[in-house]
Structure formats: C-alpha cells, structure tokens
C-alpha cells in the first residue's frame, strides 16, 4: 500500500465520526431501535425517505433513517447514494392505479361515486391533542373490519373524461427521459417535470403548492381524488414478449381538477394536476399535483409569472439532496476567497476615505 | 488504509466513466464551453466536490499519484476526506507534493509551483455559469454563450468601476478562454487567474450538482476580463509569509489575538513547507 498522507485533520475526522456513532446510539442502557421497529412504527418517515431517496425499499429506508438519526433529508441522501450504484435491468410498464388495492380513497368533488369513499388510516379528523396514553405504551384495540364489496373503483378524472369535461392526456409512445441519467434541460416536458417533482422535497413542494393557492399562479383546484394503496408493478422482458408481475408497491396518487377557461383551439374544460408518491405521502402528492398544474401554464397558454409556474425555478430547486449539499457546503473552509474579499474591501474603503479627505 | 471491495475501481462503474470521459473529450475540444453530463449522486454531498470527484474518478488509473487540496492546503478537512475516499475506492498513491502528483484535485486554489505537461488539474466547481448572478435562467445563459453575447458582464465590470473606482470582484473572476467562451475559473482568488493562461497542464472543471463539465487544454489562452484603462489586477495581502518569508505567494490571514494581532502565512502548504525545508537545509 502506497503512502497516504496523514495529518491532524484525519484524526479529527475519525474522532468526530466515533462521537457521531456514540450519539446515534444514545443512552446505551435503553434498548436499541431495530429496523423492523422503524419500518413499522415510523412508517411515514420511511415512506418519505423512499420517495425523496427515489428508491422503493422499506428496509433500506429504515436503515437510512436509523443511520441518519432521524434526519430525513440525510436519510434520503444515503438512500440516493446507494441507489446510484445499482444496475438497471429494465423499465416497468405504466402502473394501473385504477386497479389499486385501496386503503384510502377520497374525492372532494363528488359526495359519492362508484366504489365509495374510504377514509383509511388518516390523521384527518383526529383532534390534535397529545395522547398521553400513547406515552404509556400498549397495544391498541383492533380496528373494525369490513369486507370489500368488489365494486370497481374507477378514477374520478375518468368519470369527468367520459363527459368530455376533462382535458385528455395525449398518450405517447416516446421513451420517457431519465432524470437520473441525463441532466435537466429546458424546456422540460411533463414526464421529466413529474420525475423531478416525485423525488422533490416535500417541504419545498408544499410551499410552492401553497403559493399557487395564495395568488402566485392562478390556481382553482379541487381534489378530484386521492387514493393510496397497493399497485402491481409489471415488466415485459423482451425475451418473453409478455408482461410479468414482479411485485407490488404502495403509492399515493392525487389528481387535482382545475378549471381551464379554454383557448382558441380548446373549449372550456377541466385540466389535471397530477401527483404520485412512493408510500403513504398524501401532503406531498397533493402539493405535487398543485405544482404540476402550475408548471403546465406554458403549454396551456396561460401567463407565466409566478415562481411555481417557472420550470427552471421549481425543477432546479426542488431536489433536497442537491439543495442541502450546496447550502451546507458554506460551512466548508472559504478563507482563501474571504481573504481576497478582505483585501478588496480594504482597498475600496481606502479609496472612499482618501476621496472624502480630499 | 484498506481498499474498499464491492465497488468498482474509482467508485464509478465503467459505463459512467465512459459517459464522463466523452463529456471531457468534448469539453477539451471546445475550450471553456460547458458540457452537460449525467452527474451521479456520490457518497459525498453535492457542493462538496462531487463534480471534481467524478472527473478525477474518470481519469485516474492505478499508476497515478493524487494530490487533493482545499484552500491550497492538503490538511483541510474536506481535502482529507476526498483523499481518503480515493485511497479507499481506488487504492492509488497520494502525495502532498505538487511536483510529485499526476492529478491534483483542487478547491479554490491553483498551486504556486508551475504545473508541467502531463499533469492534470481538476477543479471543483460550485457554479459553472459565469453569468448566473446577472441572469439566473440557464436557458437564457446558454443562448448568450452561443451568441458570445457577453455585454452584460462587461457592463457589470464597468458599473463596478463607475461606482467604486475598481472592479469589485476578488475571486471567481471571469475569464475568456481561447478568445471565445466566457468561463468561471471556479472560486479561486483573482490572484490565481494568470496561472491559467497557457498552462502546460490540462485543466478540467467538474460541477456535480449543476451537472456541467468544462476544460482548458494545455497552452490555451485564458484572459481575465478587463478594460484598457483599467487592466486586470491580481490581489494579495501586502505582506510576507511569517513562516517561509515568501512575497510572491497567496497568503492567508491568521488572527492571533483579539487585539488586532495578525499574521500572514502561505495558503499553499506544500509551497511553504518546501521553502522552509530548503532554508533549513541551507543553514
């Protein structure tokens, strides 16, 4: 092994990482968290890390949450850095979320609809009172069960489309771009935008979506439907020539219905904002669908003047792994640049004082 | 240090390296032009040298000897971290000697010692676009580069002179490469800019987060923007290094107490150490 330069910095880094490991474990007299516990009991954290880490693997996401001490952006980064080393075997066929095995399905546009509304495991309508009984621990009583009636649950936007009220999405056979292999380029078409949003930061999308509701971008949204549950993933290997199911994943889908006044070529109708997120990520799916609709302003001939409507602004800034890296790099040494700023400011001050004295 | 198994030599898989090498070849063929590339997530954060690391990983071979500096020094924490990364995933020899290195990855400095043919200087670049403070839209800056429409930058420099009497840029000072492309030299102090001009070594620039690569081939003209009546002026502290006495090197200012005490030392640690050793040997 060749000579490797060793300096004080190296020892400091080793010591810091040892301290980190100790702090991560916390009080060693308390039982250690298992990955299964994180996966089961911090499930929404695991889901968020899978979504923003762009890798569907609950076990690895739980490990990332544990390793990151609960810092979910750090966890998403760990998962991304792992994901990028994985080989790709192929692409899946488009998922049929209409055939989803539903755990939750609500529509804000219809009181009732085929297949009914299913609240599912939701925080909605809970009173946000700290539950001290939960602090004491214990197993909750079993939730009531019902048998599904087997009725089909078509997507709400499909119901609107039957009447011609929902702008159709033109099917395309072109190969979708791959954000993880090719750098972003603009104008970005919708498949690329949706890819970026699907792994974008929940907080960023929440704020951007919120801004469209407050007048920055002209949004008139209705939740056509939110559904969450399990969907089959299929691939069609070329050597087989027919699709095979390779498993199922949990996703949350939101279809936001927006009014569209029409244009020279299009009659007035509704348009769609779309959100799809790994796991149970309802806030993100909703925010994503608002931002997706805002980003369609250009193609729909609407005015583009709000931040949420700017492709470059949204797509370049929604990725929290990129954002956290660049914001946090400011803590790296910058003393060379700062020194030249010091000299420059001193020089400029000297000029100002000299001129004032004259 | 043990070599990490389970990863390819240099961490990146060979297909990724090939993609990056293609971008590098294109960049060398069009000096100063930013080439988009499919930057990968690295196990180090974006903004911490992932572009430079990907470039180094794509050009490094088992026979190479790598030097990594940050702020001119080999022992700054991020330089240590990146050097360890390559020792771990490539098992290559590392060195602190500028003259002994075949590849030098740097953040914010160009070594004081003149580089020679055959060496490669890899810069870590945070913002590859020299115009981003004047025009944040990448679609627009691409058009400006295509048309060599750099009036905006000249106006900015002119306004500095009109307002302050000086050009107020002290680092990341924009340069024209080969008389064609406006380029960010990365946040090196303006003091280092003249070293880029007709440098015998190959200069490669990697911006991981922004997914851009660019290059300055050996012996290419690199001119800092200026005006005939306001020529470019590199800046350094007007002092000598407290350790080696150098008056020609770029200096860091070290605050020694809270009563205004200061000392200046070379930012390039290898340059300073070599000079001190030579002086001791002479005594």
General description of the model:
The complex is a heterodimer of chains A (358) and B (283). Chain A has helices spanning 8-25, 35-41, 43-53, 58-67, 72-83, 132-136, 156-162, 190-198, 202-213, 282-295, 311-317, 320-328, 335-357; strands spanning 101-106, 221-235, 244-260, 269-278. Chain A is built from 13 helices and 4 strands. Residues 1-6 of chain A have low confidence and may be disordered. In chain A, strands 1-2-3-4 form a 4-stranded antiparallel beta sheet. Chain A has 2 domains: 2-83, no CATH class; 97-121 and 151-318, no CATH class. By secondary structure, chain A is of the alpha+beta class. Helices cover 40% and strands 13% of the residues of chain A. In chain A, helix 2 packs across helix 3 (43-53), helix 2 crosses helix 4 (58-67) and helix 3 packs across helix 5 (72-83). In chain B, the strands form 3 sheets. Chain B has a 7-stranded mixed beta sheet with strand order 1-9-8-5-4-2-3. Chain B has a 3-stranded antiparallel beta sheet with strand order 7-6-10. The model of chain B has no long low-confidence stretch (mean pLDDT 93). Chain B contains 7 helices and 12 strands. Chain B is an alpha/beta fold. In chain B, strand 8 and strand 9 (212-216) form a beta hairpin. Chain B folds into 2 domains: 14-224, Rossmann fold (3-Layer(aba) Sandwich); 236-283. Chain B has helices spanning 14-29, 50-59, 77-89, 138-146, 151-164, 193-196, 269-282, and strands spanning 35-36, 65-70, 93-94, 103-107, 120-124, 175-177, 181-183, 202-207, 212-216, 222-224, 251-255, 262-266. Chain B is 28% helix and 18% strand. Chains A and B meet through helix 1, helix 5, helix 12 and helix 13 of A and helix 3, strand 3 and strand 11 of B. Chain B: It is an enzyme of class 4 (lyase). Chain B: Catalyzes the breakage of the C-P bond in alpha-D-ribose 1-methylphosphonate 5-phosphate (PRPn) forming alpha-D-ribose. Chain B: This is Alpha-D-ribose 1-methylphosphonate 5-phosphate C-P lyase. Chain B: Its EC number is 4.7.1.1. Chain B: Keywords: 4Fe-4S, Iron, Iron-sulfur, Lyase, Metal-binding, S-adenosyl-L-methionine.
């Amino acid at each position: 092994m060749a000579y490797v330069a060793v300096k004080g910095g190296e020892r400091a880094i080793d010591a810091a990482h040892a301290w980190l490991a100790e702090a991560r474990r916390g009080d060693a007299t308390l039982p250690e968290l298992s990955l299964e516990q994180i996966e089961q009991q911090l499930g929404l954290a695991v889901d968020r890390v899978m979504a923003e880490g762009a890798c569907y693997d609950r076990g690895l996401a739980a490990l990332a949450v544990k390793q990151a001490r609960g810092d979910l952006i750090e966890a998403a980064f760990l998962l991304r850095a792992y994901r990028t080393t994985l080989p790709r075997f192929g692409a899946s066929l488009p998922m049929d979320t209409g055939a989803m095995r539903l755990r939750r399905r609500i529509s804000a546009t219809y009181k009732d609809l085929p297949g009914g509304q299913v609240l599912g495991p939701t925080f909605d309508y809970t009173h946000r009172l700290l539950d001290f009984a939960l602090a004491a621990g214990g197993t909750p009583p079993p939730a009531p069960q019902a048998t599904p009636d087997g009725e089909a649950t078509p997507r709400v936007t499909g119901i609107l489309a039957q009447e011609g009220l929902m702008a159709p999405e033109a099917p395309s056979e072109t190969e979708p771009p791959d954000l993880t292999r090719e750098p972003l380029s603009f104008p970005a078409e919708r498949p690329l935008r949706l890819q970026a949003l699907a792994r974008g930061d929940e907080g960023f999308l929440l704020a951007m979506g919120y801004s469209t509701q407050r007048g920055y971008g002209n949004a008139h949204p209705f939740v056509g439907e939110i559904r969450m549950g399990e969907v089959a993933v299929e691939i069609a290997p070329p050597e087989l020539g027919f699709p095979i199911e390779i498993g199922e994943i949990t996703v949350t889908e939101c279809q936001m219905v927006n009014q569209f006044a029409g244009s020279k070529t299009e009659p007035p109708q509704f348009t769609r904002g779309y959100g799809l997120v790994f796991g149970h990520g309802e806030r993100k799916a909703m925010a994503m669908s608002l931002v997706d609709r805002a980003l369609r302003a250009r193609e729909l001939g609407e005015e583009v003047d709000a931040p949420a409507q700017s492709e470059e602004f949204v797509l370049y800034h929604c990725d929290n792994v990129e954002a956290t890296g660049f914001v946090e790099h400011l803590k790296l040494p910058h003393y060379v640049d700062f020194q030249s700023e010091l000299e420059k400011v001193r020089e400029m001050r000297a000029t100002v004082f000299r001129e004032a004295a004259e | 240090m043990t070599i990490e198994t389970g990863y390819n030599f240099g961490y990146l898989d060979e297909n990724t390296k090939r993609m990056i090498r293609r971008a590098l070849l294109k960049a060398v063929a069009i000096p100063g032009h930013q080439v988009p590339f499919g930057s990968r997530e690295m196990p180090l954060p974006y903004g911490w040298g992932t572009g430079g690391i990907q470039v180094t990983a794509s050009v490094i071979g088992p026979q190479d000897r790598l030097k990594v500096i940050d702020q001119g020094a080999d022992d700054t924490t991020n330089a240590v971290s990146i050097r360890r990364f390559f020792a771990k995933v490539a098992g290559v020899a590392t060195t602190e000697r500028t003259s002994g290195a075949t590849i030098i990855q740097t953040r914010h400095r160009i070594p004081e010692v003149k580089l020679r043919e055959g060496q490669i200087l890899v810069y870590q670049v945070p913002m590859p676009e020299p115009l981003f403070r004047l025009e944040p839209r990448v679609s627009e800056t691409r058009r400006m580069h295509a048309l060599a429409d750099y009036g905006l930058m000249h106006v900015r420099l002119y306004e500095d002179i009109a307002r302050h009497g000086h050009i107020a840029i002290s680092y990341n000072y924009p340069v024209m490469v080969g008389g064609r492309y406006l380029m960010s030299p990365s946040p090196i102090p303006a003091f280092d800019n003249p070293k880029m001009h007709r440098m015998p070594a190959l200069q490669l620039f990697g911006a991981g987060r922004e997914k851009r690569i660019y290059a300055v081939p050996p012996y290419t003209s690199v001119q800092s923007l200026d005006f005939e009546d306001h020529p470019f002026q590199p800046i350094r502290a007007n002092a000598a290094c407290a350790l080696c006495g150098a008056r020609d090197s770029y200096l860091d200012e070290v605050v020694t107490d809270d009563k205004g005490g200061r000392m200046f030392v070379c930012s390039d640690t290898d340059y300073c150490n070599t000079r001190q050793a030579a002086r001791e040997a002479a005594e």
